[in-house]
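seq:
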Amino acid sequence: MSLVQKIKEVEEEMARTQKNKATSFHLGVLKAKLAKYKRELLLGPSKGAAAGAGEGFDVSKAGDARVGLIGFPSVGKSTLLTKLTGTQSEVASYEFTTLTCIPGVINYKGAKIQLLDLPGIIEGAKDGKGRGRQVIAVGRTCNLILIVLDSMKPLVHKKIIERELDGFGIRLNKQPPPITFKKKEKGGINFSHTPNVNPTHLDGETVKAICAEYKIHNADIILRGNCSVDEFIDVIEGNRVYVPCIYVLNKIDAISIEELDLLDKIPHYVPISSHLEWNLDALLDKIWEYLKLIRVYTKPKGLIPDYNEPVVIRGGEEASIETFYNSDSNALVWGSSAKHNPQRCGKDHILADEDIVQIVKK
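struct:
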């Protein structure tokens, strides 16, 4: 029996099975089987992060961040690339105009953001149809995904694209599940949860059955949140990527204000018209926000800061002085992250956007 037939059989059995407390164990085992079969179909029998990368287009990473345009054919991705970057990508009213990956660069707030115009994907891309596997493989390497939707049929396309990306291990606008999973040599499966968690989806029996499906017989598993069976399987698979996503609703000039108000309820969305250049500034602001980039200005001792060439880095916990300078030196910091200007800060100090930094060598 082929993998496709096995997947179909498992999906049919899941559809036949009623969802309740008595069947949760059986459904958990079926979901683990399904995840295993899909991985083998997409990536071959080998497992791991290297296999999970898949075969993509030969486009080297450039700039401070990488953003991918994903959508169905003829939704305006090529026009959007041209308007934002000035890079010419073939544009036409018929489908499948773009047949390969076309890169461009957005220069915004001193940052260079690589924008990739990927070929249109079709339903069944995760199963290898069209060039979907290559498109989605590049999507796994992006810091942000822009799903470009046609305003005339946005929700239909949105659900299909989300399903295709999910099937390839891309989790949109989600965080890794709060589960500690550690294999060991002996001792069996030890399942526990933190005192503040009351698990309703996972129990010891279900966890052991899922682990047995993966031939894992010795592991420590600690639940730090009320996670689902799917999230536990994601942790075991270990090759999922968690990518922020913006839904770009294009061609809004073709719909009414009332329809636009209804579509306004979609979370993480920005309405635009790439052809008429409507609302592109708001899209760029949203891209900057979701990438969580910050600008840091360097100041040589006794000189004024270099405001023309900021150092662009990822914000949050990654933006420490130690990461910024790749050293454990202290620094003088001016800006919103400092309690007073200047403040002498240690290597663990977290920088904010538009801070000025002068490294103090020991």
